[in-house]
Known about the structure:
Blueprint: H1 3-15, H2 30-41, H3 46-54, H4 59-87, H5 91-99, H6 104-133, H7 139-154, H8 157-182, H9 184-187, H10 190-194, H11 204-214, H12 216-220, H13 223-226, H14 232-261, H15 266-272, H16 276-310, H17 316-338, H18 340-354, H19 356-368, H20 380-395, H21 401-416
Amino acid sequence: MNEKPVSRGLKEFIDDFAVTPVPLERRKGLFELTMVYMGCALSVTAWLVGPLLAKGLTFGEGLAAIIIANLLLAGYAILTSEIGRRHGLSTAMVSKLAFGEKGQALSTGVTVIVLLGFVGVYMSLFGNLVHTLWPGVPAVIAGLAFMLMLWSSAIMGFRGLAHLTEVMLPVIVFVALWGMYVMRGQIGSFAHLWQFQPKGSMSLAAGISAVFSVWATYTTLCADTGRYARSLKDVGIATVLSWGVGTAGLEAIALILAVGTGTGDLVILLTKVGLVIPAFLLYWGLMWTSGDNLLWSFSLGFTNIEKSLTGRQKVGRAGWVTLASIIAFTIGVLMIQSGITAAFNAQLKVVGIAVPPVGGVLLAEYYARRGKRSLVPVHWPGVVSWLAGTAFSWLVKGGIPALQGMAVAFLVYWLLTVGRGEDLRP
């Protein structure tokens, strides 16, 4: 008697309303919403951002770049999340008005494919860490085990992500704060931090851009999480806690370590003083909770692409999670062989140039046009605006490329639609 309801419930978790609106009765409260946002926002990439800033900025400038960039990210996440909340739809679904039924396949595809690069970074970092701590375990085997962990929570959808973060967040916070306490002797006084002078040179705008670019992709896709929100207030609180407090705090720790010890990676420092298990738990928690979010968004995106291009859901969200895991594993193996940091830095440039203009187009469609337009196969103003924003980011080297590209895409879209009072269609 109970098999059918249970089966329907499991199917609902796995399908995760990928191509339909999330019903009001299935929306989540502030706590679960915050857990999903926080799970992704607290990322191991903070350890790479801290040293990057310390190469060209003073401690005060680096701290300012972190705070400003993450407040901008929180604001951007609120705007994109609210689009999803209003309509109950994922990013790929709401992109159809701006780019067209089939046109969104290009913008969504590029955006979510970039995510797999980050998952590959996580996999390679995890594999190398395990191999370093326990040399008998090959890095590739450890990476494979890690990808299976990501797959197990990503395939269960929103609820799987939320429950995982509920377990891992206390561990992450405790180890990070305790680790800073342990390292206080090596870091030195705050006076020492404020006197730090970098060896290189970097503008504050470049620092902000570097920090913003790390999560430019995920915050562009925040409608995926926002569609589960009950209110705009919940969205605002959850995103500010996640980026304005969580991510900013973790990146500030990385900056303090980079300036005070020369190494921004708390895990490496803890390992050097013999605290192997806490170091492992910190990396494991940060990479698992953020990596499964990225796989989840990829699966939502390609489930929609599949339906838009073929009219069917033969693969389905579970199939796309599995395929994404295989691709990310392959990328991770290549990164293990060729070097992690160089690949990450190169990917940040792609993210900062190509992804934010997609968000600019979405903001123009839903906040300037208010989403009042019929659906077409390819909406060329959206495609042209995206390319214009990307080209501007590529050609103009000064300022903050990620934000400038977004602003140009917004303006061009407005001029092609609202500003001229017409809709250019194929």
